[in-house]
Inverse folding.
């Protein structure tokens, strides 16, 4: 058990290290940040002063160590647009993003899992067919198309809901629905496959043959076993809570992390993008670790092997 | 990859649908190649006196079948060129992704040891980061040209091909035919590309059909955000992106490309599933 967690922890640490290194070197490989930020025809003395003040005149190896040291001290650099600390800027956007992401996350679970279970239990019925059609749509309709079509219907034609902004509760509805649709479809599909896989196992037949009520067979024998592959998908969803709404936030002019990322990329505000990369990477690594831990908890076979 | 199994069981009885999808894809490829000949106007031709004309059945005229945009450019012509660019990006990127994946998979299977571990770590890294974020970061740092964009999209989904190539190659190496060719004195290159690759191709093709529609969606998403294909070039996502400004007054600008994105990704997914049935029913 301990061994299992130590291995996982080690891998998570290594992935995090890769992300840090990736974000450092990709920044340095783009050429001279001094020229990028100040413009190529700035006076050479100014460029030198800039390089010195950011430590760019040191050898790359020193810069890299310095970068890691700064991170450990909580120094994530400054936004090149408004000179404020980049991490603060990113963190100030997180509440807005979570206002969308958390309801959407629960909506995905509430719709996706029961739909998948139902479809598997009533295989080939109309419920199953309807679910298949919906999940194909979830797979092939990009979120910006869905979002804009919803705006066209509910804002432009019917005038029931606002098309963008964040000033009232009504503003949350369309983005949350758009955000949940694709995820619910994916989750339903995975749950259905996992359930079908499990339902064909001999232990389900045994449980049923010994006279257990079908409802209890599903509840105690099928669902816990089907939960294992589904957990992976849910873990990925938790990991992308912060950055999973890049497109949807842009469609609905929602002032969250995703919009910040898009504007920072467009403005080439590198420090902010770097911070976001680290933040997303860390969330992803943590949620993967959590999923691994849950695996060990849900499935005794995993922790014994 | 559970999707395959899911659709495989459900749509076995629907070859007609697959036929329709194949026809649609053929049509798309023909359009992409012949955009220069069939487009009624140049895609960037402005005509300020004909701004925001509706499509022909919604009060417009036959000169502009799908209407015009805010600068009086013909939506149909722009659409045809957008299809060309979007398909170009999707095809090239999918090929790059397959090449990277197969290459690394072969390397891992050939050298084993630390090379294999390194490839597996890279696969884990790629699978654990949302690709959109990586793509946005790279675009922020390097700026954007069509070539760079295609190469960047080529890094999408390689880990799937790498996993498959590695697994299948390891088992192929243990089979008689690979050993026989080795014993005849063939170089590893020859064994991998002439003997093992054709034997594992069917599974790889199936994995490519999974990557392809996802690349279309990714490209159109980034272009929608204004960070993908850059003007004056146009792509399907790009059209949706600027059409959004005219959602109220001229919804046709964004509805036409949206329709093409959805139907095309749907078709590729359907054909991919059907291929999976045919080529490799064991793949989940």
């Amino acid at each position: 058990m301990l061994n299992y967690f130590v291995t996982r922890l080690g891998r998570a640490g290594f992935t995090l290290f890769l992300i840090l290194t990736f974000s450092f070197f990709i920044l340095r490989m783009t050429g001279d940040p001094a020229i990028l930020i100040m413009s190529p025809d700035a006076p050479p003395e100014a460029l030198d002063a800039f390089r010195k003040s950011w430590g760019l005149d040191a050898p790359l190896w020193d810069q890299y160590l310095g970068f890691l040291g700064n991170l450990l001290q909580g120094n994530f650099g400054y936004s090149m647009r408004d000179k404020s600390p980049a991490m603060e800027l990113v963190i100030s956007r997180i509440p807005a993003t979570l206002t969308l992401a958390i309801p959407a996350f629960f909506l995905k679970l509430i719709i996706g899992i029961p739909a998948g279970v139902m479809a598997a239990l009533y295989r080939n019925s109309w419920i199953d067919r309807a679910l298949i059609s919906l999940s194909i749509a979830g797979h092939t309709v990009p979120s910006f198309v869905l979002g804009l079509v919803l705006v066209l219907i509910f804002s432009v034609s019917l005038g029931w809901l606002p098309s963008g902004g964040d000033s009232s509760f009504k503003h949350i509805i369309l983005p949350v629905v758009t955000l949940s649709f694709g995820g619910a479809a994916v989750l339903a599909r995975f749950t259905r496959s996992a359930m079908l896989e499990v339902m064909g196992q001999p232990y389900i037949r045994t449980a049923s043959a010994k006279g257990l009520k079908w409802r209890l067979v599903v509840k105690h024998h099928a669902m816990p076993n089907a939960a294992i592959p589904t957990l992976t998908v849910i873990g990925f969803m938790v990991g992308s809570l912060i950055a999973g709404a890049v497109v949807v936030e842009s469609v609905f002019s929602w002032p969250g992390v995703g919009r910040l990322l898009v504007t920072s990329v467009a403005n080439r505000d590198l420090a902010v993008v770097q911070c976001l990369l680290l933040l997303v990477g860390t969330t992803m690594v943590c949620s993967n670790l959590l999923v691994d831990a849950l695996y060990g908890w849900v499935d005794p076979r995993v922790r014994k092997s | 990859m559970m999707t395959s199994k899911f659709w495989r069981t459900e749509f076995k009885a629907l070859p007609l649908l697959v036929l329709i999808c194949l026809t649609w894809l053929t049509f798309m490829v023909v359009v992409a190649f012949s955009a220069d000949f069939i487009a009624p106007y140049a895609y960037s031709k402005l005509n300020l006196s004909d701004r925001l004309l509706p499509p022909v059945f919604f009060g417009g005229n036959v000169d502009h079948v799908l209407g015009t945009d805010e600068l009086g450019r013909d939506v149909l012509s722009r659409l045809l060129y957008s299809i060309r660019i979007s398909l170009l990006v999707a095809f090239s990127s999918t090929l790059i992704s397959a090449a990277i994946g197969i290459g690394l998979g072969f390397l891992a299977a050939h050298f084993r040891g630390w090379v294999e571990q390194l490839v597996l770590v890279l696969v884990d890294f790629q699978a654990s980061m949302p690709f959109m974020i990586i793509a946005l970061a790279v675009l922020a740092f390097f700026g954007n040209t069509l070539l760079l964009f295609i190469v960047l999209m080529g890094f999408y989904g390689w880990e799937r091909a790498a996993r498959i190539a590695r697994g299948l190659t390891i088992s192929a190496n243990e089979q008689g035919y690979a050993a026989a060719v080795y014993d005849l004195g063939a170089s590893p290159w020859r064994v991998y590309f002439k003997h093992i690759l054709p034997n594992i191709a069917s599974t790889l093709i199936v994995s490519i059909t999974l990557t392809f529609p996802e690349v279309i969606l990714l490209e159109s998403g980034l272009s929608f955000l204004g960070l993908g294909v850059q003007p004056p070039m146009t792509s399907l996502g790009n059209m949706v992106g600027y059409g959004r400004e005219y959602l109220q007054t001229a919804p046709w600008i964004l509805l036409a490309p949206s329709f093409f994105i959805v139907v095309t990704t749907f078709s590729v997914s359907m054909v991919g599933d059907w291929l999976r049935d045919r080529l490799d029913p064991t793949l989940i």
